[in-house]
Write a structure and sequence with these properties.
The protein is mainly β. 11% of the residues lie in helices and 45% in strands.
């Protein structure tokens, strides 16, 4: 069987030109078939233009990952009374430190830790930007048990040695967990 290709240009209704290819197959052995069989190939896309339609299996199956999320929830002891200060920008903030007990290690990792003593708590800086969380933080006393809801933030500031940064939890809600009713948000 031999094949030959013919390319034709067709005009469309909007004035652009598309290419169409027709393939002709001719039988060379007498037992197969006689004559010529015509198969129309799909039209080719014009060069220089990209299709705006997605194609292939990936087009119908959009890959969905987990939704982005920055949520922090802490429960711990207040290390010292909260401190209020004014930033060079004029913003007022209240900072406090929450001491959170670490969960004990289990399994093989625990065996490796039994050598030198490791830290059993984490001290986490919390900053209160809103008026409600600032008021609540200023009512707290050292050693109060607190619950903090917020988001992890990296703040940049100018220091004596140049530009510095620190990670802290920006509180969106702050409550006393012991010593009476919750105070504020």
């Amino acid at each position: 069987m031999t094949a030959s290709r013919t390319t034709t240009n067709r005009s469309t209704s909007n004035g652009s030109t598309t290419n169409g290819t027709t393939t002709s197959r001719t039988a060379t052995s007498g037992a197969a078939s006689s004559g010529t069989e015509r198969v129309a190939a799909p039209p080719q896309r014009p060069r220089g233009r990209r299709s705006t339609e997605a194609s292939g299996p990936a087009a119908s199956e959009q890959v969905q990952g987990p939704a982005p999320r920055n949520e922090v929830r802490l429960g711990g002891r207040l290390a010292a009374p909260a401190e209020e200060r004014e930033l060079p920008s004029g913003d007022r903030i209240v900072t406090l430190r929450v001491v959170v007990a670490r969960t004990p290690a289990t399994g093989r990792r625990r065996q490796a830790l039994e050598g030198p003593r490791r830290a059993t708590v984490d001290t986490i800086d919390v900053v209160c930007w809103t008026a409600a969380t600032r008021r609540t933080a200023l009512r707290l006393r050292a050693d109060d048990l607190v619950e903090v809801d917020g988001a992890l933030r990296r703040r940049f500031f100018g220091g004596a040695t140049g530009r510095q940064s620190r990670y802290e939890v920006e509180a969106t809600a702050l409550r006393r967990a012991s010593g009476g009713a919750p105070t504020g948000t």
